[in-house]
Amino acid sequence: MEGESDPGVVTRGGMLRRTALLVGTIAASSSLAALAPTRAWALGLTTLSQSDGDTLLAFAQTLYPHATLPTAVYALVVKDLDAAAAKDPELATLLRGGTGQLNAAASGTFASATPDARLAAAKSIESTPYFAKVRSTCVTSLYDNEMAYAHFGYEGASWPKGGYIRRGFNDLAWLPNPPTSASPTVGLL
Amino acid sequence: MANIATNDGSAVVIVGSGAGGGTLANELCQKGVNVVLLEAGKRESSATFIQDEWKSFGQLAWLDKRTTSGTWRVATDFPNLPAWVCKTVGGTTTHWAGASLRFQPHEFKARTTYGQIDGANLLDWPLDLAEMEPYYARAENKMGVTRTNDVAGLPGNNNFKVLYNGAQKLGYKKCSTGHMAINSKLRDHRGSCMQLGFCFQGCKSGAKWSTLYTEIPKAEATGRLDLRTQVHVLSVEHNAAGKATAVVYVDAAGVQHRQKARVIAIAGNSIETPRLLLNSTSSLFPDGLANSSGQVGKNYMRHLTGSVYARFQEPVHMYRGTTMAGIVQDEAEFKPSRGFAGGYEMETISLGLPFMAAFLNPGGWGSDFTAMLDAYTHMAGMWIVGEDMPRESNRVTLNTDVKDQHGMPVPNVHYDDHPNDVAMRAHAFAQGRKLYESVGATHTVETPPYPSTHNLGTCRMSADPKLGVVNPHGQTHDVKNLFISDGSQFTTSASENPTLTIVTLAIRQADYIASAMSKQLV
A180 to chain B: nearest residue by CA? Predict the structure, then answer.
């Protein structure tokens, strides 16, 4: 698990009009450590409060739990929602209200509740617009970025590398190869 | 490239540049006919295609507002995206996977073969396979379909290896890398497949057939094609004699134009095509142009569809290589002992990580969902394509409460699964699961249908003008110089991916239109 105490780098933009700050460190053992310029990360929020940001981060981790996916990737959900809320006051209101809903459902502070209590709280608000908005944002924010590609082993664009014809499109070796009548060999390009 | 004046009424005007419209345009230009080809989208190219799923979706997909109703799950998960089709030059041939299968003989005679099925509006095609065969052969040659015309099959990828081995365990006999309009060697100035893995995002090597870089440039080279992009057709006009005279369209700057025409052919895919007819009302056609039968927009079909994704102990990397890398055809036959009419194909499919998250189980969350994504590199997948039942109540209508950017009512797409569809999907899911479990799958997911890619039937072909919209040549029963040139013509959906049949019908229709023009019949 990565440490959450080191504030690390703070972007200049974040310093200017910051309403809250989320920070963390990518574990040295993570496959993503090599991708980032520095292991420490920080996300300055411009619209949402510290409480809203902490809640959304914990909510994203509750909805889409991946044991070894760094918190830095979950922070992208908060980043995208904060940016959207900056342009959409109704969304900002929805997200602020959601913090209260989740805290009430967790009978305390959702962000510091036990995993089981968070799961129960999430289930209890499943039919709300807040849940739908955060969940659908998670789907795009969590899995459509270079860190997620690296973590899950998706190789992304293949064109710059000449496709997979020489890079393992048929390298599966734990099953017999089909006969050439069903699957001809690679022809001349 | 031709420059045809808007008041020049001597040309054929085609709406839509995809499999139907793009092919028809080229076939007519090759015969010496002048064509105005109107396309709502922009012109991209292999160079501008993007190997990033969401960015590509934004570049190619038809994203104009639409609404949905009915019990199909798409209406819940994607209420404003009933179909995953394209708004770009080349239409959905930029996005299609390339599977090019001929119909089986009985599929042209669904009503006769399956008998009366309650709640289904089955009808025989006014065509049979024998009449279609020479045109199928021309289409296969044009498109360079593998395992035809001495074009070798494609090499199978890892996803295919899993499918093939599972098929053997289940005793299936018809499994191969199939008939694909993807070059396995250089042909027709297009390169061979580099196993890029982004067939759905537009083929950057051009190995996959698309009208964008085959039919359309060939038509342009004749000097007879006037292609206009980013123009949206609002209505089709006719004269007092009931003959179509012009189309009214709006260009990218919002300026309206009226293009006169000798013949008009509509190929806007099965949602926009009926929408255009329904938006073209007059005292002569109060329910929409060419709609005396009342069948315009009805009998909307979208194929059965569904996917099975399986995870294994060992890696697969299914996303490497052709998306639709192989097929099992044993279940495509009509075997009523299975408890349903019609049949289905099983074809490999793959989604990248971003789309897997969005489509594996739309709305899904929690540890079951994430456990599957954790195994992304160890997944294999198949898509099920089966014949769905035509129903009058499954239809495209105008939603007058919601307007698009041009102020026109948006299409509403209503779909309820027929009990035959439900039974077939249950069978297909079970067979897919067994297939993967036979080669060691530790977990399988039954993924519901994606937004529809195979949109069919909304201006169906019929012998009797009271039962459908067009005759066997796609000519509307009501308006002799108005043709339908896309999958809207399909009387029934059959179990095969529809593009080859759309192209085949367009080639056949071009012969008919050119002949009718030379005889002054239209």
Answer: B155
Q: Kindly report the nearest CA distance between residue A61 and chain B, in angstroms.
A: 9
**How far is residue B485 from each of residues B15, B88, B274, B499, B505, measured CA to CA in Å?**
9, 17, 12, 12, 7
| Residue A16: partners with Cβ closer than 8 Å, 6 or more residues away | none
**Residue-wise pLDDT tens digits, B418-464:** 999 999 999 999 999 999 999 999 999 999 999 999 999 999 999 99
**In Å, how far from its chain's centre is CA A91?**
20
Name which of B155, B176, B377 is nearest A170 (Cβ-Cβ): B155
Average pLDDT over residues A148-172: 97
Residue B315 and residue B95 in contact, taking contact as beta carbons nearer than 8 Å: no
For chain A, report the end-to-end CA distance as a whole number of angstroms. 47
Contacts of B194 (CB under 8 A, 6+ apart): A162, A163, A164, A165, A189, B205, B207
Residue from B56, B350, B63, B37 nearest B211 by CA? B37
Q: How far is B131 from chain A (nearest CA, A)?
A: 30
pLDDT higher than 70, residue A25? yes
Where are the strands (E) in chain A, listed by range?
20-25, 40-45
Phi/psi region, residue A47 (left: phi>0; alpha: psi -120 to 50; beta: rest), is alpha
* Three-class SS state of B447: strand
- A89 close to A20: Cβ distance less than 8 angstroms: no
Alpha carbon distance, N-terminus to C-terminus of chain B: 25
Residues 224-283 of B with CB under 8 A from A: none
Check: pTM over 0.80? Answer yes or no.
yes
| pLDDT tens digits, B254-291 | 999 999 999 999 999 999 999 999 999 999 999 999 99
B492 near B461, Cβ under 8 Å? no
